[in-house]
Amino acid sequence: MPLIPAHPAPSPSRTGFAYALGLQRPFLDAVPEARRGQAFGLLTAGLMSVQGAAPVVFGAVAEFTDAGVSIALAGLATVCVAGCLAAWRMRCGGKGGGPWA
């Protein structure tokens, strides 16, 4: 495949990272200005770590069970984490809170 037609092909996949913009604003508001650099560094490192570890964990689960079971467990884990984060946010009054407040 020629290089020029292949270049735009990954471009639509890059738009998937736009979800982070909606998450970063409340996070920015919750962190004091003096600690924002460190907080965003930890946020990015944490996101990359989980995004790298989850496929390994659920791949290992798929090795010992069915792939459908692994996918279902990944979905269940996502729902559980979302529920925990929603409960934590409600406890903090909807303002984010956290250790930087």
Please tag this protein with its features.
101 residues; 73% helix; extended; 5 helices; mainly alpha
**What integer value in Å does the Rg equal?**
18 Å
β-strand percent reads: under 5%
Shape annotation: extended
Q: How much helix, percentage-wise, in residues?
A: over 70%
Quaternary structure classification: single chain
Largest sheet: none
Number of E-state strands: 0
Query: Could you report the average pLDDT, rounded to the nearest whole number?
Result: 79
User: What's the total helix number?
Assistant: 5
* Poorly predicted regions: none
* Termini Cα gap: 52 Å
Structural classification: mainly alpha
SSE sequence, one letter per element: HHHHH
How would you describe what is shown here?
- The chain is mainly alpha-helical and 101 residues long.
- 73% of the residues lie in helices and 0% in strands.
SSE inventory with pairings:
Elements: H1 3-6, H2 11-14, H3 19-30, H4 36-64, H5 67-91
Kindly summarize this structure in a few lines.
The chain is mostly helical. 73% of the residues lie in helices and 0% in strands.
